[in-house]
Design goal:
The protein has 14 helices and 18 strands. The chain has helices at residues 48-51, 55-66, 78-88, 93-111, 115-118, 139-151, 175-184, 201-211, 228-237, 251-260, 270-273, 276-288, 302-314, 365-371, and strands at 3-14, 24-34, 39-44, 127-128, 131-133, 156-160, 189-193, 216-220, 242-244, 265-268, 292-295, 318-321, 337-338, 342-345, 348-351, 362-363, 372-379, 382-384.
């Protein structure tokens, strides 16, 4: 079996509810086709502030560097292909992650197995739905939204304390944690993402101590990325588990974080690790050090959310994930694929673990066409728009 075609669709995804920060988002749908008719799909969600990539750079790098190295190769040789990418360039993890995702989709379809089986089988049978709460909502609006969702079965909420366009977390936003807890009751899980917003160890410690009485599951990235020694001091002076996201992009940063004893959890994201192989390496380092992992989501559609579900379901060391259904938590006006569903497990809204081969999702061609910005095809004959 050989790869004959790589295709990228740059998409401008419309949102159901517009805020000053989120009117639309950019995704890149990747298609890998083989000479035996097996087709795999992947998805890049390049957030420039986090990956340094955009839909345009993802498309360009795939067309000029990554895809030409795939044409004519065996799609099942994922490790060899990833090593080749390592030898010929650095960075561009979102582009690499999307292409590698498509190779795993091909592999699952060839062997007739869902992705989680290729990763070792099920470690758990329930992956709770997560709902991210808007960065701009007032306390009353946030509480009303969360309360309605909780009554509908959502039991895991992620609260962003520091809006993406602000570099410093305002103290008054801490009041949102109390409002959220009042709205969802004592049993729902609340995760807090500070988005690097506290700035100093003293401010982070004071802020976490203000919210810890509300039963926060963990606090994510309290200090500027890479401030591992500061995170170690915050962790030593507070009782809420600390999760690192922006500080840990791949295996090297994971090793540094566990050596520094800077965290209780590491957020693994395929757009940071450059794919599933990198995510598995981060997990192995974390698990060896006694640190759990959280499988994160960059705001994906269903193609990119599917491997988040598979990873959480398969990895025993993965205690949580950001499984925001694109049609609810992701807030897309129209998702780009079908195949993901929610189900109620012991009263909790959870993501159904896909059972079809590969990722278990299928692109919705009409939704793709409706939101398509540009399409690029790479074959042995070269590149065509």
């Amino acid at each position: 079996m050989k790869i004959t075609l790589v295709e990228t669709d740059a998409l401008r995804m419309r949102m159901r509810r517009e805020t000053s920060e989120w009117r639309w988002t950019q995704l890149v749908l990747v298609r890998v086709e083989t000479d035996e008719g097996v087709v795999g799909f992947g998805e890049a969600c390049p957030g420039y502030a986090y990956t340094g990539e955009t839909a345009a750079t993802v498309t360009a790098v795939i067309a000029s560097h990554l895809a030409p190295a795939l044409i004519g190769r065996d799609p099942l040789a994922v490790e060899a292909i990833a090593r080749r990418w390592d030898e010929t360039g650095v960075g561009n993890e979102a582009a690499r992650g999307a292409l590698e995702m498509a190779l795993w989709d091909v592999k699952g379809k060839v062997f007739g197995r869902p992705l989680y089986e290729l990763l070792g089988g099920l470690s758990r049978r329930a992956v709770p739905e997560t709902y991210p709460l808007d960065r701009e909502e007032a306390a009353e609006e946030l509480a009303a939204r969360a309360g309605a969702l909780h009554r509908d079965g959502v039991a895991v909420f992620k609260l962003y304390l520091c809006p993406g366009d602000e570099r410093e977390l305002r103290d008054d936003r801490l009041e949102l944690v109390a409002a959220l807890r009042d709205a969802v009751g004592p049993r729902a899980e609340i995760r807090v993402d500070a988005n690097q917003g506290w700035g100093t160890v003293a401010r982070a410690v004071a802020g976490i101590k203000r919210i810890e009485r509300h039963g926060v599951a963990f606090v994510e990235e309290p200090l500027p990325a890479g401030h591992l020694e500061g995170c170690r001091r915050v962790r030593a002076r507070t009782d809420v588990p600390l999760c690192l996201d922006e500080s840990v992009r791949g295996p090297r940063e994971a090793l540094a974080a566990v050596r520094e004893e800077a965290c209780d959890l590491i957020s693994v994201k395929l757009m940071k690790t450059g794919g599933i192989l990198g995510a598995l390496k981060v997990n192995a380092i974390a698990e060896t050090a006694g640190v759990r992992v959280h499988v994160g989501n960059m705001g994906h559609g269903s193609v990119g959310t599917a491997p988040v579900i598979h990873l959480h379901a398969a990895l025993a060391n993965a205690v949580s994930s950001d499984t925001d259904p694109p049609w609810r938590g992701g807030d897309f006006a129209r998702d780009l694929a079908t195949g993901l569903e929610t189900q109620t497990v012991e009263g909790v809204s959870s993501m159904r673990i896909p059972q079809k081969p590969g990722l278990g999702v299928t692109p919705d061609e009409s939704a793709v066409a409706e939101q398509l910005v540009s399409r690029t095809r790479i074959t042995a004959a070269g590149r065509s728009p």
